[in-house]
């Protein structure tokens, strides 16, 4: 069976010997654009199950992957910008069976879902998308974001979330991810370049897999179906955007929560890098080709990155204050629960002591988390207040400048009003001096109306004449085209006749040459004939002379009588 080779073009190709350093060197510019320039950026890993996506994105303690390196790079870049204030938030979710789950929830994603909290993708007024939490009562509790105070805290949140991610062993992969993981870092900055808010999405997509090849059944088969469904929706968006003359406004983003959340990364205003991973086994050839086709389509999409500026308004400050209040209320509720537990057992026994001690340990851990979160929120609140004050000061300066301009404008306006009053007075004086009565004005109006009607009549007549001239011109053009066609035909006929005339002239020339040759031959024959006639006449004369001499000789001789006389014959004419 013959196989046709197909070439694919990518920005870089790394083989199995490439290191994590080699991979991250391609990612680094995208991370820098978030901190330095305020661009949104996305780094996404896609490939067949077991091809190394999670290894590329997470790595190991000895060889960290893209996400840990990006965190280190973020804080290194922040340290290089002392004149700018930065605040970071993070969200870490998995898309499992087409539903988002919070991997950073203290009680785990399943417990959060069991409590009634639901995460959904919402659309902001500027058409951007974000993750929001809706509680059991159906009220939206705000954006799903956790404040971050340090590099160490951010790395710890990453590892905590990875520990809660759903994985299992299949025939194709001993540690197969059963969900898509989306680790998002939200960077807000305020500095000489202004206030900016950018997002870095680091996405580890679950691997596309064949249910038959992976050997999964039951609930795991449902997981595989859900994974393939969301990847298919992502492929549909890529296929749509990679087709010429198609825009992002008609792309099927809403077919999956994954594509809806990543809308800005696919044909939007973000900078996006796709890392496609493949396996070496020959048996994986069809899947490898599918991944390469998928990646080639993604490469054809043209995003339009823009800098995301923001203003630190009162609403954002109030939102942070509300979040602080919710955290304080949650801590107070937990303390009340422990106090109630203590009051219910005045004579604690050993088992109760153990339970109470565990509760105290849990409370202490939660207090530490609350303290870290409160510290981050307070720092962020201070950051926003300072930025808001700076913005308020800038606005006050602009207001002062505008007030100065307004004062100058008011003075100019007063001068203009005075000039206008003078002009009106002059106009009234001129009107009075003209003394045009109403009858004359009406007469002028009637004349104007008559002239207007006359002009309209002339205009209609001109339109008719124009239409007639256009029709006539069209006919003349038609005749002209016919004449041009006839002239072209005549020219062609003339060319034919000229060719025939040239041929006849050639033939006539040949005939004249033949006639001239014949006349030459005739002349030569006549000369020969004349010469022959002259020779003949000369010969006859000679013969006649000879005959005369002979007769004379005969007559002078004596001939005997007995001898009969010889008859005389006339001399025959010599021919």
Automatic annotation (TrEMBL):
It is found in: Cytoplasm. The keyword ATP-binding applies. GO terms for cellular component: cytoplasm; microtubule; microtubule associated complex. InterPro entries: Kinesin-like_fam, Kinesin_motor_CS, Kinesin_motor_dom, Kinesin_motor_dom_sf, P-loop_NTPase. Transmembrane segments: none annotated. One of its GO terms (biological process) is spindle elongation. Residues 1-301 form the Kinesin motor domain. It comes from the Eukaryota. Residues 321-454, 494-553 form a coiled coil. Gene3D superfamilies: Kinesin motor domain. One of its GO terms (molecular function) is ATP binding. Residues 555-564 have a biased composition (Polar residues). ATP binds at residues 47-54. Residues 554-575 are annotated as: Disordered. Pfam families: Kinesin (PF00225). Signal peptide: none annotated. Keywords: ATP-binding, Coiled coil, Cytoplasm, Microtubule, Motor protein, Nucleotide-binding. Belongs to the TRAFAC class myosin-kinesin ATPase superfamily. Kinesin family. This is Kinesin-like protein. The lineage of its organism: Eukaryota, Apusozoa, Apusomonadida, Apusomonadidae, Thecamonas.
């Amino acid at each position: 069976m013959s196989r046709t080779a197909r070439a694919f073009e990518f920005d870089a190709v790394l083989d199995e010997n490439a290191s994590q350093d080699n991979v991250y060197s391609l990612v680094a510019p995208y991370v820098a654009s978030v901190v330095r320039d305020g661009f949104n950026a996305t780094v996404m890993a896609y490939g067949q199950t077991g091809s190394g996506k999670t290894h590329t994105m997470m790595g190991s303690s000895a060889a960290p992957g893209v996400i840990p390196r990006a965190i280190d790079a973020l804080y290194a870049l922040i340290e290089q910008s002392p004149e700018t204030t930065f605040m970071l938030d993070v969200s870490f979710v998995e898309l499992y069976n087409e539903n988002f789950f919070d991997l950073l929830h203290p009680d785990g994603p399943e417990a959060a879902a069991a409590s009634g909290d639901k995460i959904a993708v919402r659309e902001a007024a500027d058409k951007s998308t974000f993750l929001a939490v809706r509680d059991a009562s159906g009220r939206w509790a705000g954006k799903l974001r956790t404040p971050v105070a340090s590099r160490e805290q951010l790395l710890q949140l990453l590892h905590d979330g990875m520990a809660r991610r759903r994985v299992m062993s299949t025939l194709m992969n001993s540690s197969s991810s059963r969900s898509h993981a989306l680790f998002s870092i939200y960077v807000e900055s305020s500095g000489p370049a202004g206030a900016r808010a950018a997002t870095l999405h680091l996405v580890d997509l679950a691997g596309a897999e064949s249910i038959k090849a992976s050997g999964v059944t039951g609930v795991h088969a449902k997981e595989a179906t859900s994974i393939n469904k969301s990847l298919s929706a992502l492929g549909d968006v890529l296929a749509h955007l990679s087709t010429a003359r198609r825009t992002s406004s008609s792309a099927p983003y809403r077919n999956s929560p994954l594509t809806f959340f990543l809308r800005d990364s696919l044909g939007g205003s973000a900078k996006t890098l796709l890392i496609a991973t493949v396996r070496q086994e020959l048996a994986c050839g069809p899947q490898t080709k599918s991944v390469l086709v998928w990646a080639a389509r993604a490469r054809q999409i043209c995003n339009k990155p823009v800098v995301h500026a923001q203003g630190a308004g009162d609403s954002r400050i109030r939102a942070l204050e509300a979040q602080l209040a919710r955290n304080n209320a949650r801590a107070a509720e937990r303390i009340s629960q422990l106090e109630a537990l203590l009051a219910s057992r005045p004579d604690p026994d050993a088992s109760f002591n153990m339970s109470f001690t565990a509760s105290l340990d849990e409370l202490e851990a939660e207090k530490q988390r609350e303290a870290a979160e409160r510290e981050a929120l307070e720092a962020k609140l201070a950051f926003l207040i300072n930025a808001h004050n700076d913005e308020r000061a800038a606005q006050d300066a602009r207001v002062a400048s505008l007030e100065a301009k307004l004062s100058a404008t008011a003075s100019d306006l007063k001068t203009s009003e005075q000039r206008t009053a003078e002009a009106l007075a002059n106009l009234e004086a001129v009107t009075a001096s003209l003394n045009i009565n109403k009858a004359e004005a009406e007469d002028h109006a009637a004349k104007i109306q008559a002239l207007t009607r006359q002009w309209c009549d002339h205009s209609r007549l001109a339109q008719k004449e124009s239409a007639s001239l256009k029709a006539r011109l069209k006919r003349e053009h038609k005749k002209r085209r016919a004449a041009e066609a006839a002239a072209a035909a005549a020219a062609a006929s003339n060319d034919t006749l000229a060719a025939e005339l040239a041929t006849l002239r050639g033939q006539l020339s040949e005939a004249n040459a033949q006639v001239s040759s014949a006349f030459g031959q005739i002349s030569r024959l006549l000369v020969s004939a004349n010469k022959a006639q002259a020779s003949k006449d000369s010969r006859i004369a000679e013969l006649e002379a000879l005959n005369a001499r002979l007769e004379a000789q005969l007559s002078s001789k004596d001939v005997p009588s007995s001898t009969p006389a010889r008859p005389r014959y006339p001399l025959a004419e010599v021919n």
